[in-house]
Structure formats: structure tokens, C-alpha cells
Amino acid sequence: MAQIVAADAGLEKAADCLESGQLVAMPTETVYGLAGDATNGVAVAKIFETKGRPQFNPLIAHVSSIEMAKQYAHFDPLSLKLADAFWPGPLTLVLDLAGGSAIHPLVTAGLETVAIRMPSGFGRALVEKLGRPIAAPSANSSGKISPTTARAVNEDLGARLPLIIDAGATPVGVESTIVKVENGVPVLLRPGGLAAEEIERVAGIPLMRRGGSAVEAPGMMKSHYAPNAALRLNAAEVGEDEALLAFGTEIVVGSDRALAVRNLSESGDLAQAAANLFSYMRELDASGASMIAVTPVPMHGLGEAINDRLARAAAPRNE
């Protein structure tokens, strides 16, 4: 069973665990991550084993500085501009691997690119303490709801971990936005905690969206972030034995008979909605409902990331 330690007292203990090849659940500003030394193949393999994650699904390598990132990956001019603007923060860049990069091939799933992010807060401090990149997908069983509290991590993976660092609820609440620059054009691979409009403002050109099913970066599998209950999107009413995930002030027909109700943001604040998304999905799942009705969420700003997570949670399961 995992030991749960407060973030302000857990840095040394967490670094010792990683140094010895063990895993640690650590808080970041996005969600809690399942952290292992990204240069240690045994530790990275433990991440896949603990999550039950397919090994063709790559991981994000977390760094503490742009200088550290440059030891493992090549930056094109636009990627460097984005890193300067948004790191530390909820932006992951997919970059070409540097020659002789010590990041283990399991992290990149055999690709010639690597996904890199500089987190803020405890995550960055832990990377700096270790002195090497940390691979850290969300600290949950593969395909399930990402955790935004230490308690959620413990309920899912606590029996399989030695240590969980507790820093309270994560402020962003959804995973990072993932961008790959191709021929000078930024391509959005996964919407996330940094709005596309902010990236376009710095880049000076529109983000390209690309369809297709190829897994180029973490979080691109069609079925992901799923509760046990099924999700019904763009719901205008609530059926019998359903729970309700609402947004805004609009009254939903049948909401009085819902088994449980959570409103992502009654005021229509998309940042608040993103921060509440995974914890509210988890709470509604615990109501015993077999179906969660979800009302529409706008597609602008962080709404793009929220709708992406909802669509993946509602997709047919990879059983």
C-alpha cells in the first residue's frame, strides 16, 4: 500500500524512490502523474505494467529546463518560441530525438520523436532533484479517468505504488496540450490545458488540426479517460437511472430525477469546468448510474480540450 506524503515534505523521499527505479505518483498542475526515471528501461516498463497501458502508446518526458530538454531533443525555431512562452506550463512539444538521447525507447514507443513538457511546481522540482527527465503519464489505470487528487490515485493504484505525493487538487484539471511543428506549421495533436488560441497568438499562425488514427503522441487513443458508466453526449434531457453532468445555467429536462448531478461550472467558466471535469466524472460514476448524460460544452478556448476528453470517454471501449 502506498505511503501518502504531503508535497512540502516529500521531495527527498520521491527522488530516492525514482533513483532506485521505483515509481512515484506526483502532482503536476494538470493531473497527477505516474512518475519513473525516463532513462531507466525497467522503471519505464513498470509504468506500462502498473497502468496496464499499451506499449505502442508513448509517454511524455518531463524536464526542469529548456537546457535539459535540449540534451534529449532538437528544437526547431517555432517550438523553441513556444517553449519560451509557455514553459513551465501545460504545453507538451513533440520534437525530434537528439542523437544519442538517453531517454529509453519505451518512452517514445519506438518513434523518432519524443514528447517533452516542463511542468510547474512539485513536478519540476522533482525532475531538477533527480537530474534526469521523468516519464509521467496520468496516474490511473489505462483508459480510465485521470486523477486530479492524491485520493483518486490511491483508490485506483495505491496497492501497486510505494509513494503518493499529495499537493491537493490540481489547478488545471486536464492534461497538457500537445503540439508538433511540421515544416514550420504548428499541428495540434491533443487539445489540453493550454487553449489553442493562446498558442496561435504566440505562433502568429493558425494551428493545424489533423484527423487520422495514428498514435503520434500520448492521449491519442480513441477510447480513453473513461468511467465505468457509459457517456451520452449533447444531452437535452435526463433518462431514468441516469446521472447528469451539466454546464452553465440552462435547466435540463428530467434533471430532478437524475441519480446524481454535477455542474462543471454554473457560471459558464471553462477554466473552472476543466478543473472539475475528471473529479465530477468520478463522482457521478460512483452514483451507480449506468449512463451519464452530458450537456453541451462550447468548443472555444478550453472547451476544445473538455470536449476531446468527453468524446474519448464516450467512445466504444477497447475491451
Automatic annotation (TrEMBL):
GO term, biological process aspect, one: tRNA processing
E.C. numbers: 2.7.7.87
Cellular compartments per GO CC: cytoplasm
One Pfam family per UniProt: Sua5_yciO_yrdC
Location, primary (coarse class): cytoplasm
Binding site for L-threonine: T30, H62, R117, A136, S176
All copies of domain YrdC-like, residue ranges: 8-194
Keywords, ordered alphabetically: ATP-binding, Cytoplasm, Nucleotide-binding, Nucleotidyltransferase, Transferase, tRNA processing
Organism domain of life: Bacteria
Compartments where found: Cytoplasm
InterPro entries in UniProt: DHBP_synth_RibB-like_a/b_dom, Sua5-like_dom, Sua5/YwlC_C, Sua5_C, T(6)A37_SUA5, TC-AMP_synthase_SUA5
Similarity field: Belongs to the SUA5 family.
Annotated NCBIfam families: L-threonylcarbamoyladenylate synthase
Function: Required for the formation of a threonylcarbamoyl group on adenosine at position 37 (t(6)A37) in tRNAs that read codons beginning with adenine.
Entry protein name: Threonylcarbamoyl-AMP synthase
Species, as recorded: Limoniibacter endophyticus
